Amino acid sequence: MPEFQEKAPLLQKEAIAPGIFRLTMHAPEIAGAAHPGQFVMVQVDTSMDPLLRRPFSVHQVTSGGNIQILFKVVGQGTARLARLTPGDQLDCIGPLGRGFFLDRRDRLCLIGGGMGIAPLYFLAKRLLQTGESPGDDYVFLGGRSREEISLFAAEFFDLGYTVKVSTDDGSMGHHGFVTDLLGPVLPDMERVYTCGPFPMMRIAAQKCGQAAVFCQVSLETHMACGLGACLGCTLTGADGRYIHVCRQGPVFDAEEVAWTT
Amino acid sequence: MPEFQEKAPLLQKEAIAPGIFRLTMHAPEIAGAAHPGQFVMVQVDTSMDPLLRRPFSVHQVTSGGNIQILFKVVGQGTARLARLTPGDQLDCIGPLGRGFFLDRRDRLCLIGGGMGIAPLYFLAKRLLQTGESPGDDYVFLGGRSREEISLFAAEFFDLGYTVKVSTDDGSMGHHGFVTDLLGPVLPDMERVYTCGPFPMMRIAAQKCGQAAVFCQVSLETHMACGLGACLGCTLTGADGRYIHVCRQGPVFDAEEVAWTT
Amino acid sequence: MDNINGMDIDLRVRLGELRLRNPVMTASGTFGYAREFSQLVNLHRLGAIVVKGISLKPRPGNPPPRVVETACGMLNAIGLENVGVQGFLERKMEFLRGVNSRVIVNILGDSAAEYGALAGKLTGIEGIDALEVNISCPNVKKGGVAFGTDPAMATEVTRTVKGQTDLPVIVKLSPNVTDITVMARAVEDAGADAVSLINTLIGMAIDVGSRRPKLANVIGGLSGPAIKPVALRMVWQVARAVSIPVIGIGGIATAEDALEFLLAGATAIEVGTANFYQPRAAESIIDGLRAYLAAQGEDSVRAIIGALQIDEA
Amino acid sequence: MDNINGMDIDLRVRLGELRLRNPVMTASGTFGYAREFSQLVNLHRLGAIVVKGISLKPRPGNPPPRVVETACGMLNAIGLENVGVQGFLERKMEFLRGVNSRVIVNILGDSAAEYGALAGKLTGIEGIDALEVNISCPNVKKGGVAFGTDPAMATEVTRTVKGQTDLPVIVKLSPNVTDITVMARAVEDAGADAVSLINTLIGMAIDVGSRRPKLANVIGGLSGPAIKPVALRMVWQVARAVSIPVIGIGGIATAEDALEFLLAGATAIEVGTANFYQPRAAESIIDGLRAYLAAQGEDSVRAIIGALQIDEA
Ligand SMILES: Cc1cc2nc3c(=O)[nH]c(=O)nc-3n(C[C@H](O)[C@H](O)[C@H](O)COP(=O)(O)OP(=O)(O)OC[C@H]3O[C@@H](n4cnc5c(N)ncnc54)[C@H](O)[C@@H]3O)c2cc1C
Ligand SMILES: Cc1cc2nc3c(=O)[nH]c(=O)nc-3n(C[C@H](O)[C@H](O)[C@H](O)COP(=O)(O)OP(=O)(O)OC[C@H]3O[C@@H](n4cnc5c(N)ncnc54)[C@H](O)[C@@H]3O)c2cc1C
Ligand SMILES: Cc1cc2nc3c(=O)[nH]c(=O)nc-3n(C[C@H](O)[C@H](O)[C@H](O)COP(=O)(O)O)c2cc1C
Ligand SMILES: Cc1cc2nc3c(=O)[nH]c(=O)nc-3n(C[C@H](O)[C@H](O)[C@H](O)COP(=O)(O)O)c2cc1C
Ligand code: FES
Ligand code: FES
After folding, report:
1. What CATH number does residue A224 fall under?
2. A64 found inside a domain
3. Which of A230, B33, B178, B225 could form a disulfide with A224 if both were Cys (CB 3.0 to 4.6 A apart)?
4. Does the CB of A33 have a partner CB in chain D at under 8 Å?
5. Does A112 share its domain with A219?
6. pLDDT higher than 50, residue B137
7. Do A80 and A125 share a domain, yes or no?
């Protein structure tokens, strides 16, 4: 699969909610090759501290060869990204990894928790290209508060999906876990895609397992290279062997993962 | 002597010539205590690379508690400073070191080479406060080209000094060394202040020595702390003993320095 | 004792007989004789101040350049410039006596006898609370091999110093060894009251334009955040190998850094290079320790010393 | 030979019998089996590719987390995960044979016999140009002390490997020793054709929130720009102590970094951690070396190897 390194000019920076940003970069080669669920390794600065690139899911590919990433400020790398201004350049490598399995159209449910929403929007858009209406497909979004989640709910809604929301503080939608929303609809689903905190994905995976619904998850782990070279990004697979998130994933079938860890 | 650490908001950034910038910061405590020839230690970034603060002469103290620094981009620290925008904060420690000796008014000559101009402007302004006209006092400025030097020539001229310029490329004033300008006027001088490249100051010091004119120089050396603690900033003194530039200087009487090194 | 959110937080620690009000000290050679920082730092808050290494005679130090910045660190080859023990007692102690903090004198010599003589001269002086013995210096008698890389030589220095003083003796270990626990055990057996580590790693930098070393001395000591992982590993190893208190040093700039060392088993820490770029580092570490303990529901810093949890494999 | 500004610049170097078109190699464990970088890097330009360390049997490696970022560096505890020598020959060599660069296989074992067996299996294979012997591994027979910290054990491994192969043998030295020149001389005497250094420094990091080590393995290897000053010092020391070629490794990311090592006496260099954050680092170093040599009026990279100038004191 093609991979590129591009010095991508930052076109737009959107402050979505406190500490949450969306960046639009011009990266035509990466944009042309990206598949939902793949990620980019972004160099946050020319300084050697922080040293390593940061992985971010491709949040969206827009016309004219642009890509978007959506992120939350959690440490020094994301803090630096948040300080960039349009015109700055971002050195990006991608698209990397194995994305979501998209061979055919089923009754779908996309479950995103926190920044796990990021790859799902790209997925949701690509699914539209199958030509079928997404009206019977669900998007469940979990976040801290209305402030954090409402824009995304509207955006998925605008694509035509049936959108439900949960928040930690009850300020919008269901007050509780986003996976609580899954129970009622699960019997009708053929496929679930999920990305978010590990415990959330574990619950989704378990529910899908019990209901025998095909489920794909997008995992996170610390990555030094994103290229399959450092062997640093391992997690434990269902068979007890190590899986390498950057090359074998980040998207895995739920049954490939050891959910105990 | 009082020293302060201030998080100084950047008020203004002027691009003087390619690679040369002037920053104005609001640092009322430092501004209130600074003396010409003293310097500030500036933290260029919150990153640990580059790690150390960078020393810059106080270029000017302006009303309202502001200080200015004038610098040329030569490495990663200055490159980062040049990327700041108004509103950013600069963590500054100062005023540090021993400045120019200013007890009384003589017939003066200020000689600045390159960024050595920086402390001389503050000196030139303070000298005006003695109340005497600077019309008989000289300011000699050396730079690479007209582009680099003309603004400063105008600014010293506006203060009332007799200004002469030399450039490396001959695009303005004398084509050659700024110290060449000293010969004709030296017999009339009582005091020479100089800051610039070491070889330039050496020539000035030698000429003054021969003419028995009191000469003060502002030295540069690598500094880790600027506070007299690391003992890293030594140069060799005239008596062969080490001098500590950050505390005993940066301004020295020319005869205190070993000009051979 | 301080009160945060209605909770008493006790930051006191003991290094043998030496009692500190908090575990945050400033490292030798990075804090001058404290006066250099008096305008910027509240010296009275510090757990202890370790002064620049003192020798019997004043030393001029190495020719310049003496310092060079490296990636997240710096190299220094100061060459142990100092005012000598007499100059120190005459010109520096008076100020230090006025500081309401512990004063630890770092000593260095070219022979065990020199170390002993220094210890003698610094004992019984009002205001000196402990000695820190820098054994990273070359032993001139043994052809310049550092005392800190040979257990027998380190033992001899420690014994000699202990014989000349009743002050608590901290031996400061060099990281430039294959197994630092061997050195730590040697000085423990020789009577050291505590060990501090690490001193600098030996490094080098070259100016490719001139093809010359960036330091006149060619090699120098690497310090700063770059070395923190190595320092932390060594502190962890030593804390498990000896029963005397361990003082952690190396790249500590924030409360989080300090906590890593305390969790690894250090009873106290020294802030070094960080003083240069953030003079208030030690003070903000003290504040940060307190905030951490409060958040973790601990009422004493002693509860977290060595509290690192390691899963059994 | 290339022509820049009308000048021929010769970048070729020799490591004993091994001839490289330029001195820029990629370090073991940081470049996979090269294929991982084939989309981003022009592999045919590299002086040599050193593949991930290979053992007799495949190894699963350590549990996660395995990597953690540090100030200007990173810690890794991969635990020598690899496909094993058979897997390597069956699944990785075909691609490597298609690359127009030298291929050096890094080997590791738990006993001298394992190293020897590996050397035997890798000899006479088309496309393998040399072996790099990683002696930083623990010797299971000697209670886990690393081969790389004991001159006698390093000698034994080197002799055994030399006895099993006619390929050039590079022995890769560990920096976690008191005097690396002792190790370098030992392996030189044992027949090594070259030495490469440094492997990682041992370090550690702690998560203060959970009070646990950040690496599941507790300790790991520190690499990246943070360690460059230590690596450069050791390369300089070793280059003066042995007469076989020295390969410099440690924090090299730019042409300037590479030049420091060449000036200090390295005949070639390996780019490690930099491959992770700047996959084209090796290529840009090749370009930068050429530009430097042209600017300095040198027509061969060999003119600057060991050309460091030191003023007499
Ligand atoms: C495949 C993949 C896709 C991702 N996509 C997104 C996304 O679309 N939006 C988003 O906000 N975040 C995403 N993340 C997480 C994101 O990479 C981290 O939040 C980010 O690296 C934190 O960097 P920092 O410097 O701000 O934090 P620090 O904590 O300072 O980082 C220190 C180190 O830890 C690593 N790290 C810290 N948190 C994580 C994490 N959760 N996962 C992996 N490594 C981590 C960093 O990469 C860095 O090496 C993704 C992670 C992976 C593996
Ligand atoms: C007392 C004093 C006053 C100064 N005033 C000014 C001024 O007003 N304007 C100005 O442009 N420059 C001034 N300088 C020089 C200025 O400090 C350096 O240009 C600057 O530190 C370079 O930093 P860098 O990161 O861009 O360069 P780098 O080369 O990347 O810096 C690497 C290291 O070398 C040190 N260094 C590099 N060049 C010098 C130098 N010439 N002198 C001292 N240390 C250096 C840096 O501080 C840093 O520690 C002054 C220096 C001193 C000592
Ligand atoms: C400029 C400088 C001077 C030093 N001088 C001494 C000294 O005189 N005696 C000593 O034992 N250690 C000395 N050290 C070592 C420090 O005390 C400390 O052990 C080392 O720098 C590691 O800590 P850090 O990374 O926090 O700086 C010096 C360090 C520096 C940077
Ligand atoms: C993730 C990782 C894996 C490594 N694996 C090996 C290995 O298998 N064999 C080996 O000899 N060295 C290995 N090394 C060490 C490197 O080859 C190199 O010696 C070290 O990282 C220092 O160079 P650097 O600072 O340029 O990375 C590894 C280093 C890293 C970071
Ligand atoms: S991140 Fe390096 S192998 Fe996956
Ligand atoms: S710069 Fe530290 S003593 Fe002068």
Report:
1. 3.40.50.80
2. yes
3. A230
4. no
5. yes
6. yes
7. no
Nearest alpha-carbon partner for D171 in D144, D148, D142, D138: D148
Rounded distance from Cα B136 to ligand 5 centre (Å):
70
Which C-chain residues 218-277 have CB contacts (< 8 A) with chain A?
Answer: 225
CB-based contacts of B154: which residues, under 8 Å, 6+ apart? Answer: none
Rg (CA), chain A: 17
Contact C42, C283 (CB under 8 A): yes
pTM reported for the whole predicted model: 0.97
Kindly report, residue by residue over B62-92, the tens digit of the pLDDT.
999 999 999 999 999 999 999 999 999 999 9
Q: Please tell me the predicted confidence (pLDDT) of residue D1.
A: 45
Q: Kindly state the average pLDDT of the residues B142-170.
A: 94
CA of B195 from ligand 3 middle (Å) equals 32
- Which of the following CATH numbers is that of domain C2-61+79-202+223-304: 3.20.20.70, 3.40.50.720, 3.40.640.10, 3.10.580.10? 3.20.20.70
Average pLDDT over residues C186-202: 97
Indicate whether B129 and B221 sit together in one domain. Answer: yes
Residues of B in contact with A48 (CB under 8 A): 49
Binding site membership of A39 for ligand 1 (Cβ less than 6 Å): yes
Band (pLDDT 50/70/90 cuts) for residue C250 is very high
ipTM surpassing 0.90: yes
Q: Tens digits of per-residue pLDDT, D240-261?
A: 999 999 999 999 999 999 999 9
Write down which residue in A96, A130, A165 finishes a domain: A96
Nearest to C69 among B1, B51, B236 (CB): B51
Q: Check which CATH number belongs to the domain holding B28 and give it.
A: 2.40.30.10
Whether D106 has its CB under 8 Å from any CB of chain A: the answer is no
Domain shared by B130 and B251, yes or no: yes
Distance D195 CA to ligand 4 centre (A): 15
* pLDDT tens digits along D63-86: 999 999 999 999 999 998 999 999
* Domain assignment present for A261: no
Asked, for residue B103, whether it belongs to a domain, the answer is no
My answer on whether A205 and A157 are in the same domain is yes
Residue A103 lies in a domain: no
Q: What is the pLDDT of residue C38?
A: 96
Same domain, A216 and A124: yes
Quick: pLDDT tens for D153-208.
999 999 999 999 999 999 999 999 999 999 999 999 999 999 999 999 999 999 99
Residues of chain B with C-beta less than 8 angstroms from the C-beta of A76: 47
Q: What string of DSSP letters covers chain A?
A: ---EEEEEEEEEEEEEETTEEEEEEE-HHHHHH--TT-EEEEE--SSSSS-S-EEEE--EEETTTEEEEEEE--SHHHHHHHH--BTBEEEEEEEESB----SS---EEEEEEGGGHHHHHHHHHHHHTTSS-GGG-EEEEEESSHHHHHHHHHHHHHHT-EEEEEESSSSSSEES-GGGGHHHHGGG-SEEEEES-HHHHHHHHHHHHHHT-EEEEE-----S-SSSSS---EEEBTTSSEEEHHHH-BEEEGGGB-TT-
Q: Is the pLDDT of residue C165 over 90?
A: yes
What's the pLDDT band for C140 if we cut at 50, 70, 90? low
Instruction: Give residue A75's domain range.
Output: 4-96
Residues of chain D contacting A246 with CB distance shorter than 8 Å: none
Is B85 buried (19+), middle (13-18) or exposed (0-12) by CB count in 10 A?
A: exposed
